[in-house]
Specification:
D-Maltodextrin-Binding Protein, domain 2, 12 strands, 2 domains, about 20% strand, five-stranded mixed sheet
Length: about 280
């Protein structure tokens, strides 16, 4: 099986010439709702400085970002998790050589309504909420309210990060609500005093409260140093490495520039650079 995959990979490399790109004047992106704010900020910035180039951004989930890259409908697949082995295999067999570009780092804050007096949970307590072992905020020192747990949909890279780092593969309880975006998680939590949810760091604002986890707040420094327990890289995948000097190459290196640093920082994610 591995020999077949490697042969397919070599065929993809030869076919793509190591340089995968769609039309020179068009860049299509699809995938993660977490990476979406970065993708949209970069798209607006790039089009302002290159009037002849059209950059479009879709936010259909990390899993769909892979599919769009494989079927050729997107030059960039945005993902808030790394590509699975099965997805890589499907890409290679479909003639696509996935190249991962880490564009930022992200923490995954656990969010509650601002009126909730609970300010700190352990990873075990969060897991117990989502497995249904803890069902009332009173069990955690909060009000006598039944907990309403909100989760991202299972196609989401954010969901997979939460499943791996918090749930540790334990099943989520049947009563947990699923929503289709980070913004929807925030909206549900900000309007529901008994709710708890999780979203990317860039989605935290004054309408929700981010809990400390194991005594550590989700912030740029704690994510960068690894002190915050729920963190991950954010990716953009291309088919092969972009041709040097092309629009796709210039777009895919924006995160390394000073302007890219400021955009990522202002959105609330953590840049790889330090200007």
């Amino acid at each position: 099986m591995m020999k077949k995959v490697m042969k397919s990979l070599m065929a993809a490399v030869v076919a793509a010439g190591l340089f995968g790109e769609a039309r020179a004047d068009s860049i299509v992106m699809d995938g993660s709702t977490t990476v979406g704010p970065i993708a949209k900020a970069f798209a607006e910035y790039y089009m302002q400085r290159n009037p002849g180039v059209n950059v479009t951004v879709g936010e259909s989930g990390s899993g769909n970002g892979v599919r769009s890259l494989i079927n050729g409908t997107a030059a960039i697949g945005t993902m808030s998790r790394f590509m699975r082995d099965t997805e890589f295999k499907a890409s290679v067999e479909g003639g696509v050589m996935p190249v991962a570009h880490v564009v930022a780092l992200d923490g995954l804050p656990i969010l509650v309504h601002p009126s909730n007096p609970v300010g700190d949970l352990t990873l075990d307590q969060v897991r117990d909420i989502y497995t249904g072992r803890i069902t009332n905020w009173r069990q955690l020192g909060g009000p006598n309210l039944a907990i309403i747990a909100i989760s991202r949909d299972t196609n989401s890279g954010t969901y997979e990060t939460f499943s791996e780092l918090v749930m540790r593969k334990q099943p989520i309880a049947s009563g947990v609500e699923y929503v289709g975006s980070n913004g929807a998680v925030r909206q549900r939590v900000q309007t529901t005093p008994a709710a708890i949810g999780y979203a990317g760091l860039g989605f935290v604002d004054a309408t929700v409260k981010a809990l400390k986890i194991n005594g550590v707040a989700a912030a740029a420094e704690t994510v960068r140093t690894g002190a915050y327990a729920i963190a991950r890289p954010l990716y953009m995948f291309t088919n092969g490495y972009p041709e040097l000097g092309s629009h796709l190459y210039r777009f895919m290196t924006l995160h390394l520039t000073e302007d890219g640093y400021h955009m990522i920082n202002e959105i609330g994610f953590i840049p790889l650079t330090n200007y």
